[in-house]
């Protein structure tokens, strides 16, 4: 399912003394099956964009096409419920939205609310608990008796239980330890690849954007100021600095090494693994010559 934002502007509390413009003429095309990262400093408009992707917010100007549903200002649209079913959002600290007596009921709530049978919803919950690496006996526990990391996984299972076609992730690893972060990011990547899930990730982590995304959009003061592949984005240090963003660690190391040795590596190294590979090749070449 393609998502296309055309000239989207948004103001909070429009036509009140508290009006606050958050987006200005944002154009963005997220093709079906792609992994799009959205980066930008605090307050640049990332979360506001995200909330347009499943029509939680409607543009105050412009339009957004979500599959074949077009969302426009002032237009009443009966298909929004269908859109919300297909586009799942994992908000920051999603565990804050857990509410039911048991994990099972919590995961089943969303799909049953959308007319899925009890039997099917239960089947999905059991499968998802396994997929997310939670012990099976977690299903009958209260979500509030779990650890923070487990609660996060249960909340993610609740979003996945809707069988979304698009998964929108707003800083999904905030507050987790490095191992927990990696496990969750790898899980989302696996889902993206195996189920062909279109994935949109808002992140402050340049490393995650560089490692996982096919394309990256930069938000700055409510505008989408740059969009491209990770290679294109991270080859442009000057503009990143203008937008108060940094290079991923591996690219920073690469630049230091290139400066110290006076040698250029053959490609930009977006991950630790590719930096290690490039350095190994360089050392081999040096030995051979
Ligand atoms: N509910 C709201 N009411 C009024 N203004 C808001 C509201 N939510 C966000 N804003 C304002 O809109 C602008 C964009 O905010 P947004 O949350 O989209 O940025 P962000 O890039 O996601 O920031 P962060 O990285 O801190 O999450 C900011 O100036 C913010 O203060």
Automatic annotation (TrEMBL):
Compartments (UniProt record): Cell membrane
Membrane topology, as annotated: Peripheral membrane protein
Boundaries of every ABC transporter domain copy: 3-246
Function: ATP-binding (A) component of a common energy-coupling factor (ECF) ABC-transporter complex.
Family to which this protein belongs: Belongs to the ABC transporter superfamily. Energy-coupling factor EcfA family.
Assembly with partners or alone: Forms a stable energy-coupling factor (ECF) transporter complex composed of 2 membrane-embedded substrate-binding proteins (S component), 2 ATP-binding proteins (A component) and 2 transmembrane proteins (T component).
Protein name: Energy-coupling factor transporter ATP-binding protein EcfA2
